[in-house]
Amino acid sequence: MERAALLDINGQIFAEQGRALNAVASRDVKVIIVGNPCNTNALISLKNAPDLPAKYFHALTRLDENRAKCQLALKAGVFYDKVSNVTIWGNHSTTQVPDFLNAKINGRPVRKVIKDTKWLEEDFTKTVQMRGGVLIEKCGRSSAASTTVSIVDAIRSLITPTSEGDWFSSGVFTTKNPYGIAEDIVFSMPCRSKGNGDYELVTDVTISDFLWERIKKSEAELLAKKKCVAHLTGEGNALCDIPEDTMLPGEM
């Protein structure tokens, strides 16, 4: 199936869901979009729900965060719960950017615990980006159980106060973000919550040239996909030109 057709078919579903939420949902509803491509589908949904706060729509990137934490824990020889401050930047696709620069293990910067820079910049990043495909190839199906756990984790992070100094990842609306990421898209960024279902973006993060180069690539992908679904967001005719296949395995 052509990318434009896939985006259109999936997008129509989420446009309808957005209109339904706009018509009958609580004005304080919180929405987590899981269906892929989830960042773009979240954008479509929120654009079709103009009476609801755009910031209350989330694209699920917690699965990617959980995978990143597991890889760091395995490499460092520690339990998963010793890893904190992990961010997934960008799109839930192979352009996602798992951030080891700001991550911590037992409260220490990852780079002081794992000193293998090549592994962090190459193997770690690629493993997290491609983990879904590896599981499908091995098991013959997508990781439904892991996805379910990540949905629960994402909800828990919104209704439980974030631990002091920590944060979690979620694909959220970028308008007025503090990082310089393009506005009016849904982009995974680091968030904190007071436990009331709301969140704020984390400002005390370091973005190196290494991270920024990759963040901009994911941003470009999302901007291109936004043009593909312009007819579903009320922004004119669709214009789809995405030369590189970055869909995660199972998205078809």
* Name of the CATH class of the largest domain: Alpha Beta
What CATH calls the topology of the largest domain is L-2-Hydroxyisocaproate Dehydrogenase, Chain A, domain 2
How much of the sequence lies in strands comes to 5-15%
Number of domains: 2
Keywords: NAD, Oxidoreductase, Tricarboxylic acid cycle
Pfam family, one: Ldh_1_N
Catalytic activity: (S)-malate + NAD(+) = oxaloacetate + NADH + H(+)
Protein name: Malate dehydrogenase
Please name the defining characteristics of this protein:
single chain; 252 residues; alpha+beta; Rossmann fold; L-2-Hydroxyisocaproate Dehydrogenase, Chain A, domain 2; 2 domains; 3-stranded antiparallel sheet; 8 helices; 13% strand
